[in-house]
Amino acid sequence: MIGIYGGTFNPVHYGHLRTALEVKQILALDEIRLVPCRMPPHREHPEVPAEMRLQMLQMAVAEVPGMRVDRRELDRDGPSYMVDTLASLRRELSAQPILLFVGADAFAGLEKWHKWRHLFDYAHVVVMTRSGHRGGELSDFLNRRLTEQPEDLRRNSCGCLYFQNVTRLEISATAIRELIANEMDPRFLLPDAVIGYIRRHNLYRS
């Protein structure tokens, strides 16, 4: 099984990395791919260029077995729609199960995503939660896809909705950017290699 974890990663931090590692181990994934977004459809364009966010991400996972960076959204014009990314991956991976990981906040707005129903044509959607919390009521469409059996993710190539409890570290990329802008030390919130890159390129300074 292949996991997909997208985001702007502006910058990547231990909140991203810890949850990615946990779901890889808990669900026994063969690989988890971190997919940096070039142009997010639902938020402002990051001030740091996509290639620099990619380089920080590559530094962060360089020595982590089974975690890799996938740059396909950076090489595609227009907004970075996840449904297009999953369609591209499905063409490459044939019938291998693909798991799209989303946070609880992102899942709450899933029905506003571009062609969101088609996500399930290409992948399972796995929501990373704390203590199994699911938020509000699910729509009929989502309820029909809900499973509580992780084996269903391996038996089928796509189509399921699954909730996975993870350790959520209260670390925010926005807060990290604010710390750096205020000339405060972001140490222990993100990898030292990434901090060094930020300092060398004078990123996030006000």
Low-confidence stretches: none
What is the distance, rounded to the nearest whole angstrom, between the alpha carbons of the first and last residues?
42 Å
Coarse shape: globular
In round numbers, the mean pLDDT is: 94
Q: What is the architecture at the second tier of CATH?
A: 3-Layer(aba) Sandwich
Helix content: 25-40%
Task: Provide the domain count.
Answer: 1
Write the H/E string, N to C: EHEHEHEHHEHHEHH
Write a structural description.
It is a single chain. The longest helix is centred in the first third of the chain and has 13 residues, at 14-26. α2 packs antiparallel against α9. 34% of the residues are buried. The chain has helices at 14-26, 50-61, 82-93, 104-108, 119-122, 140-143, 151-155, 173-181, 192-200; strands spanning 2-7, 31-36, 67-69, 98-103, 124-129, 161-165. The protein has 206 residues and is α/β, with parallel strands linked by helices. β2, α2 and β3 (67-69) form a beta-alpha-beta unit. It is 35% helix and 16% strand. The protein has a single domain (2-169), classed as Rossmann fold. It has nine helices and six strands, in the order βαβαβαβααβααβαα.
Q: What is the topology?
A:
Elements: E1 2-7, H1 14-26, E2 31-36, H2 50-61, E3 67-69, H3 82-93, E4 98-103, H4 104-108, H5 119-122, E5 124-129, H6 140-143, H7 151-155, E6 161-165, H8 173-181, H9 192-200
Parallel strand pairs: 1-2, 1-4, 2-3, 4-5, 5-6
Helix pairs in contact: 2-9
How would you describe this structure in keywords?
globular, 206 residues, 35% helix, single chain, Rossmann fold
